[in-house]
């Protein structure tokens, strides 16, 4: 069964597969309200979580499609511990990515070095064929050319240990597409008014819900709509 997390009257769906199931199988759209942490909020590129209208969340709970849960409030005293754990995890990820980036650059350098060596060998062969083996002067110039050509390869093979480190701005950040259900989450009864579900018993909510359910049962796909213009 799908889980909808409710907090302060807002019903949120965090799983990408759950959102797909709600829209494709149950005809409940909701609206995405999440934004990327490193980018400005753009209404055309919003993502998880999915915010359900109170009428949508109640309908899904009534038909038994989802379970409404009320997640426990985070303890402010544990914020520093969570922040420390996050920074530690980010530092470990940066170190791992730095090693992988250095290995990838070294592999690429070796590939380019092989191509350069092959090109130098082909060029040397052409020069030997053009110059001929009879003239000592030409042999001396060929030897000088060979020394000049072999020097770049040796200079290129040296700086493998001096690879520039991976900048922190290039750190890849993994964004989760699902959120695990909190261990201490408790089921929420939508029939009883509470801090997380203040809609119970309100005439306006009952009227909106009766209209929404009637239209949903007729097969209409309803959304929270939006505002056009400035």
From TrEMBL:
Q: Name one GO biological process term.
A: tRNA-type intron splice site recognition and cleavage
Domain TSEN34 N-terminal, by residue range, is: 4-70
Asked if the Swiss-Prot or TrEMBL record annotates the protein with the keyword Metal-binding, the reply is no
Comp. bias regions, Low complexity: 128-144
Keyword Zinc applies = no
**Keyword tags:** Lyase
* Renumbered residue ranges of the record's region Disordered: 119-165
Name the domain of life this protein comes from.
Answer: Eukaryota
Q: Which GO terms label this protein's molecular function in UniProt?
A: tRNA-intron lyase activity
List, alphabetically, the GO terms of the cellular component aspect. tRNA-intron endonuclease complex
InterPro entries from the UniProt entry: TSEN34, TSEN34_N
- Name assigned to this protein: TSEN34 isoform 8
Q: Could you read off the lineage of the organism from its UniProt record?
A: Eukaryota, Metazoa, Chordata, Craniata, Vertebrata
């Amino acid at each position: 069964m799908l889980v909808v997390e409710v907090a302060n009257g807002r019903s949120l769906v965090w799983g990408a597969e759950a959102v797909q199931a709600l829209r494709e199988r149950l005809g409940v759209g909701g609206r995405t309200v999440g934004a990327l942490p490193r980018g400005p909020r753009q209404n055309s590129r919003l993502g998880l979580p999915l915010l359900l209208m109170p009428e949508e969340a109640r309908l899904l709970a009534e038909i038994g499609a989802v379970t409404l849960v009320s997640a426990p409030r985070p303890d402010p005293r544990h914020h520093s511990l969570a922040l420390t754990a996050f920074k530690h995890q980010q530092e470990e990820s940066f170190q791992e990515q730095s090693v992988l980036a250095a290995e990838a650059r070294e592999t690429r350098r070796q590939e380019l070095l092989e191509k350069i060596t092959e090109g130098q060998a082909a060029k040397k062969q052409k020069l030997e064929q053009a110059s001929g083996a009879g003239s000592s002067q030409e042999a001396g110039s060929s030897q000088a050319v060979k020394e000049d050509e072999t020097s770049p390869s040796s200079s290129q093979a040296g700086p493998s240990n001096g690879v520039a480190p991976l900048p922190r701005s290039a750190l890849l950040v993994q964004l989760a597409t699902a959120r695990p259900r909190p261990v201490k989450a408790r089921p929420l009864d939508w029939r009883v008014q509470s801090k997380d579900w203040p809609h119970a018993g309100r005439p306006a909510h009952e009227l909106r819900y009766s209209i929404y359910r009637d239209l949903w049962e007729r097969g209409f796909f309803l959304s929270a709509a939006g505002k056009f213009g400035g």
